[in-house]
Amino acid sequence: MGKRLFDILAAALGLLLLAPLLLLVALWVRLDSPGPALFRQTRVGRFGVPFTIHKFRTMRVAPGAAITVGADPRITRAGRVLRQTKLDELPQLWDVLRGVMSLVGPRPELPKYVALYPAGLRERVLAVRPGITDPASLAFSHEAELLAAAADPEREYREVILPAKLRLSADYAATASLAADLRLIWITLGRVLRG
Asked: How far lies 194's CA from each of 39, 54, 85, 191, in Å?
């Protein structure tokens, strides 16, 4: 079974089975703070094509930094739980179904960070569909805490975390296979269930 066919079947099944949970979470987000249930943002997808990513909104509707640092005061009560359990990522199953994302692939970045990618790595990372999980997102699952400990979080992200994530993403893109994807999905689910 090809990667894309697996993505379609798994995302469709996930959306179908999780529909009641998705509705309850959307309602909770709306009741917890003013604003829409979904957060939408432009990210860079395969071959550098921009697309809109969907997540459950975890922050108050207010301007702020692009990166989340530690216990960011913009995070809502519901948002704290959704981030800890990774339930905020579930709407991306729709992005997988519509073909702009995959279950496994390099996490899609903001255009301003993609502009910092070295040319060679940029070409390799953007040759595959971005994903909900990948080796870099597993390695940096506590990224917000790492940034909170930095004197300059934005600089720490640009100069330390982003290059490390980019190398992991490029390695994944070079060796991607359905078997490797299944292993990464299994590890991700295990971590989510363990909290």
From this structure: 26, 24, 9, 5
Alpha helices in 48-161 (DSSP H): 77-85, 92-97, 111-114, 119-125, 135-139, 143-148, 153-156
Q: How many domains does the chain have?
A: 1
Let me know: does 17 contact 9? Beta carbons within 8 Å.
no
Give, for 17, the enclosing helix (H) or strand (E).
helix 3-32
Alpha carbon of residue 37 to chain centroid: 17
Q: Is 151 exposed, middle or buried (0-12, 13-18, 19+ CB in 10 A)?
A: exposed
pTM, to two decimals: 0.90
Q: Read off the pLDDT of each residue in 26-33 and give the average, rounded to a whole number.
A: 96
Q: By residue range, what is the domain housing residue 29?
A: 3-194
For residue range 96-113, list pLDDT tens digits in order. Answer: 999 999 999 999 999 999
Cα angle: 162, vertex 78, 59; to 5 degrees? 45
Cα(79)–Cα(89) distance, integer angstroms: 11
